[in-house]
Amino acid sequence: MGTILEAxxxxxxxxxxxxxxxxxxxxxxxxxxAANALNRDVQKQMSMASVxxxxxxxxxxxxxxxxxxxxxAAGAAAAYExxxxxxxxxxxxxxxxxxxTHEEVRMSASGMSAQEIxxxxxxxxxxxxxxxxxxxxxxxxxARNIRSVxxxxxxxxxxxDPLMKLRVVALGAHPEHAAELGEDFDKLVKGMEIKGVxxxxxxxxxxxxxxxxxxxxILFNGSLxxxxxxxxxxxxxxxxRRAEITISGRSKSQDxxxxxxxxxTGQFKSKDPQEIAATLDKFGVGIAADVPLTKVPIYxxxxxxTAFRCLEKLCRxxxxxxxxxxxxxxxxxxxxxxxxxxxxxxxxxxxxGEADHNWSGxxxxxxxxxxxxxxxxxxxxxxxxxxxxxxxxxxxxxxxFHDGDTDKDRARKRAQTRRDREAGNSLKASVTVQGxxxxxxxxxxxxxxxxxxxxxxxxxxxxxxxxxxxxxxRSDGSLSVLSLVDPRALGGSGAKGGSTGAAWGxxxxx
Length: 510
Known about the structure:
elongated
């Protein structure tokens, strides 16, 4: 039952850009090889670049001079195209420099601090002075892209210099394709997000470690789906071309689920489940209830049991359930208190479906036995509560020992809850629908009702949503897989609005 509180979000990053990355990398490699072939005699090329620079000075008086690494690229181009390459390089530099202020605004919008922006400005100015074929604005733009990939501005600065060297060579060889090369370098930088997983795992781990310590929200078009923490990172690699990373997290309620219950005395008197849970909630999760609860005369914490275990035991005997909420809190409720708009219908909006009509878990007599913490005689030492399911049709008893203090009324209530849950769990279904929302635009929510009709599945009644699994990819788009159950399994009333196959019907819990 704890799984309903473990809202899990899984993000997968696959090397789906492998082809594009390889194409860009091959193009850059071809350019670099061509430049290297022309630059075997480095001194000769530097001399040629100096001549080209003097030509540029005469043609573009007052323009900035070409830097050291750019001279090699310009010299290589001059062997084929002379001063035309220099004209293109200088013109591009002058044009890009005018956009620097705009880039600073974009940096700020991306979350960079004022100090980082100022540092980026200084580094870009230094690199632009060294590689005059690339403007200060373009270098700042590349720095911003790299930062978004590696996770920190400091790490991004270490990658800038070698990328600018490569870009200068590419521009020198093909100045007429400057705009196209700029786009290619953007792809190259973004491709590092995939390739960097295997080339520099330490950096990626550093980024993931930072995520694990922070609270995150998962939203679908502005609607909160889960608030919690990243707590699992699973990298996978194969055949030198495929890299996959699964990053998963759970709701904030994970701390309440995983951590031991801590209390000064370990005992509560005349408190209801919500009050006890709120006292044990030292994690700031938040515990609420939308159903009436009965006060428990005495509850003692079993040493070492988790806070959630305490709450789950108390809820079980009262026929209610702790359910995780999108904001990470826990709500004590019953299934069927809400209803989704629309219906799930075979041949209309049901993409896939399967059902399980299974009576193997039902019993004719559910017998709960326990004891009071004080007193003597049968009323204290031989407490028994019985609930019968007449639909079973043959003698199939089950005896349950209550794990805690109890009395006759509480034992009887727990027996009824167990019987109804068995009846509800005898009908389950799993259906896949397109999109994340019902007909009214509300995200699918565990515990809510939805009318479900499928002749093949032999289901035609209200069903309660037990779990929701959302997925999204390029082939199928947005899908929701709803695990459905008869409402009695979640403390609700018997199904209304239809019936399952007559042979599998039941009035338990009516």
